[in-house]
Amino acid sequence: MEEIIQFDKQLLLMVNGSDSVWLDSVIMTLTNAKTWIPLYLGLFYAVCRTNWMRRMGNPNQPRAIMNIVLILLAAGLCVLLAGAVDDEIVKPLVARWRPTHDPEIGALVDIVDGYRGGNYGFFSAHAANTFSIAVFFSLLMRWRFFTVCMVGWSLVNCYTRLYLGVHYPGDITVGLLWGGFVGWLVYRIYCRAYSRVNGRFEVPRPYDRKLLLVPITVLALTIIYAFLHAAF
Question: Is residue 12 a contact partner of residue 99, using CB atoms and an 8 Å limit?
């Protein structure tokens, strides 16, 4: 175990930071949760438009609203189980220092804009939160290209945590595993609730690919914004 821990620390030092002020700015923008609000709004638009269109001309249109509420609750449950459990239970219990606070290598970590994060870093809430959302919506919407984009989005967030030196690769790996499990579990719970709302057991149909281009486009534009914002 000690050899694994030391390897984890050496691997972190290999990918942490850079000599580029521009890249520092890009990473700080991408790691900020507020940066991704447009993406969440794009997902919300796709959910609302899809469920409403499926109920057009149907006397049970209130079910469309209920389905939308179920998805919002499911997304909230992903964050609660993935991130809140980590921050409130796992991190204080395990109490593994973040690299930026680690007495052994803290002085070697490249700090960006004085950002060090909290004391403890196991496991990564960024990795768990983003991957749980990526897995849940990928299972819900079922388009391979969309899945690739969402997983890529989560991995970009994971990389920013390594770059900033606030998580070890091991923290990220465990966060991804937990987040993936949570996303799958919440999807299963959602499917059961969806069947009850609609009065019969059924798996939600795949989403219209044209609608899914909205959150994908927003994701791409957000990343472009981060690069341009750093340049100016």
Answer: yes
